[in-house]
Structure formats: C-alpha cells, structure tokens
Specification:
Elements (H helix, E strand, L loop, with lengths): L12 H14 L3 E6 L7 H10 L6 H10 L15 E7 L4 E8 L5 E4 L22 E11 L5 E13 L2 E14 L1 H4 L6 E4 L14 H7 L7 E6 L8 E5 L12 E4 L2 E2 L2 E10 L2 E2 L5 E5 L6 E3 L1 H9 L5 E3 L3 E5 L10 E6 L2 E6 L4 E4 L11 E4 L1 E3 L5 E3 L1 H4 L2 E6 L4 E6 L3
Parallel strand pairs: 3-8, 4-7, 15-24, 16-23
Antiparallel strand pairs: 1-2, 1-10, 2-3, 2-6, 4-8, 5-6, 6-7, 9-10, 9-25, 11-26, 12-13, 13-14, 13-15, 13-19, 16-24, 17-18, 18-22, 19-20, 21-22, 25-26
Helix pairs in contact: 2-3
C-alpha cells in the first residue's frame, strides 16, 4: 500500500492561504516520500544489517541468528516499518527511479541496463537513451557491507532531476550486479546518499546538495526531512535547499557535527525517568536510511524497563504491547545531543507487529523501535526522526531538529 504525500490544512482560511503560499514557493525543490509495507526482518536481523552499514560486527547477535534462523517465520506487519521512498529522474529525457534518500551514505546509485537478473525487477538506467550521458572510462566501484550484501558497477556523468531542480553532469554509480539483500526490495531501485563526500565509493568530491547550491539551483546547501508516523499514513518529504515550517513546531535546535563523514554528533545522555542511563558521551549517527534507534544493551534495558509489558526474546529482541501505540500517555525518554534535549514519547517506540497471537494482551506484541547491540556508536534512525523534522546543513556542518507537528 503506497500513500502519497499530503499536508494537513488548518481550519482557518487565513492559515490555509499562508500554507499554500509557502508550499508553492517550495514545490519546485521538494521530493515527496512514499512508504512501503510488507514482510519485515525480526529486530536482531535488522540490527545486524544496520550495524554492517558502519562496518560493525556484533558476534553475539550473529550467533543468536545462526542458532535460531531455521525457526524464524516472517509475518506481515499490522504496525509496519516504514521505508521512505521518493522519485528522482536521471538523463535527458528523464528516466525515473524510486530511491531511498539516505543520510547514512554518500553515493547516488541505480541499476544499469547492463545489470542482468541480479537486479530483479528494478528499473534500469539506459545511458544510450540519454543525450547528456557520459560514461567514465575504466571507473568501476563496489560498495560492500559487513553482512555480505553489496553492489558493484561503473560510474558515469548525467543530469539528475529533483523536483524541478536539475544538477547537470552529476557523478552517479550505475550498478551491474547486486546481491539478493538489495534485489529483494521490489519497490526500491537505488540509494540517494546525502552524507559527506569522504564516505563515498564512487569518487564524488562534493555532495549534490553542495553542487546544487554552488550552481544557484537551491538557496542554501541544506537538505530537510519530514518522516511521518505510520498512524498518519507514513507521509513524508525531502526538501533540497530550504526548510518547510509547515511540518514542525517551535524553533530548530542545531547540534554541531563532530566528524564530517556521517552526520555524526555527540550524544551526551539518555534520560529515563529523570535519570541519565548513558555511562558516557558517545558518537551518534543521524541516519534516515536506518529504521531503528540502536544503543548499548544497558541503555536499551533501562528504556524498556519503563514500558509496561515490554519483554525481551532472544529471537525477536525487545517487544511491547501493540496497543501501547494508541496510549494517551505523555511519558517519554529524553535524548541529549550536545547540550540540547530531544524527548520522544514512549508510545512512539512501537514498531512492527510480530504475531497475531504472540501475547494474551489485546493486539499482541510489536517490535520495539529501540534495539541493543555491542557497538561503539549510537544510530538514530527513523524511529527517532519520525518525532523530529531534521535539517542537514552542509555549509555549517550541523544538524537541526524540531518537534514534528502532531
């Protein structure tokens, strides 16, 4: 089921007019994000894949998955994960692709017409049909993850179209082979990386956001995200060069990037019931391409201890009553980034349903959006970002966050 992006209108005519004016001003710069429903990994499997993106291996999780894999049964989720996809186009005339806009990677890649069956049913880019296409001679690349998944291909230059903005002669990766982990996602064609250039494998020297700004195509070297809650249909938006104030309340709080590779910031605390359960400051990665919040085990245990009915299972990880998602409680945990506070309602940690009959409680049990791992860094994925409008500022090397409008 795919839902199109929408904006909630005010009941007053004046506010409606103001919002419509802002939307009209920004419409040529934004890309609507859809979401995907379907079968989902259990939490340990998703943690393994998320950590692999950063080259981290947790042997305890791997051992658990190896011993339990034959007993795993993946079920369709009622409370689904959300994979935020948006449409871009490449070439002249434009060829369209559905991509994941990912602040946890830096390369832009889509399947090539030279990719065989390994690219499954994904859309493929055909350079011979583009008048602006230029292949880079002998320039090959490969992107591998710790879980064994990978893509490989060659690089080329061509126009990339984002809404009504176009970046001519953008360096892109064209995939000739991908492993089943990527091929199995039927609606996702490729990845649109939005991290810093040192993380890239295709050889980009600047982010496309920076290049668009330098060319005068967007007003600022920023990219902004609204990731809607599943209860609201999972609607979303990625906006290049500007900020859409219709999607958040209050003022943006900015946190400095500590290492310009990922969007890495300092996490200085996690407060549960007023007590800081984070032993010391840790690096945290703000990542739109990851579903979960991944933290050390002691932090995860403290968070779930505050959630009524939460329980841990070696196969499924942390789970909680699905009905808790509809709870009216305002109880929250507080994540501290730098010297700024970013609270999240506990009810917003409910993720995907694991079983129709896995619990005697009404509605069964759902996966938690917080997972634990033996990791030297914390990952703040979509579970966190659904509660906050996020702005990634290349010019000032900072991340801005403001509470998403309810």
């Amino acid at each position: 089921m795919v839902h199109q992006l929408g904006v909630i209108a005010s009941s007053t005519a004046l506010l409606w007019t103001m919002m419509a004016t802002v939307e009209a001003q920004l419409s040529h710069l934004n890309v609507g994000l859809d979401h995907l429903e379907g079968n989902r990994m259990n939490t340990p499997a998703r943690v393994k894949r998320s950590l692999a993106k950063y080259g981290i291996v947790d042997e305890k999780i791997n051992s658990r998955l190896n011993s339990a894999s034959n007993a795993a049964i993946e079920l369709f989720s009622a409370y689904v994960d959300i994979e935020y996809l948006g449409e871009i186009a490449i070439g002249t005339p434009p060829q369209k692709f559905n991509v994941d806009f990912d602040t946890g990677s830096s390369d832009i890649w889509v399947p090539s017409s030279k990719c065989g069956s390994s690219c499954s049913t994904h859309h493929r880019f055909d350079g011979s049909k583009s008048s602006t296409y230029k292949e880079m001679s002998n320039q090959t690349w490969q992107l591998s993850y710790g879980d064994g998944s990978s893509v490989r291909g060659y690089t080329a230059l061509d126009a990339v179209h984002l809404g009504n903005a176009t970046q001519p002669q953008q360096l892109i990766g064209l995939v000739t082979q991908e492993t089943p982990e990527f091929a199995s996602d039927k609606l996702l064609d490729g990845i649109f990386g939005l991290a810093f250039p040192p993380l890239a494998y295709t050889g980009i020297k600047a982010s496309i956001v920076q290049d668009l700004h330098m060319a005068g195509s967007i007003p600022s070297p920023i990219v902004s995200f609204h990731l809607g809650h599943n209860r609201d249909g999972g609607k979303g938006e990625v906006l290049f060069g500007d900020i859409n104030q219709n999607h958040f309340e209050g003022e943006l709080k900015y946190v400095p990037v500590t290492v310009k590779k990922y969007w890495q910031v300092d996490m200085t605390g996690v407060e549960v019931g007023g007590t800081n359960v984070l032993a010391s400051t840790m690096p945290a990665i703000v990542d739109t391409g990851t579903t979960l919040i991944i933290v050390p085990s002691d932090v995860s245990k403290a968070i779930h201890k505050a959630i009524p009915g939460a329980e841990y299972d070696p196969m499924y990880g942390w789970r909680m009553p699905c009905a808790f998602a509809e709870d009216s409680s305002t109880e929250s945990i507080n994540i501290k980034l730098g010297d700024q506070d970013f609270p999240i309602f506990l009810r917003d940690l409910v993720r995907a349903k694991t079983s129709q009959s896995s619990s005697s409680s009404k509605g069964g049990l759902c996966y938690s959006g917080v997972a634990e791992a033996n990791t030297p860094l914390i990952i703040l994925g979509d579970t966190f970002l659904r509660s906050y409008y996020s702005v990634y500022d290349f010019g000032n090397a900072r991340v801005g966050l403001a509470k998403t409008k309810p």
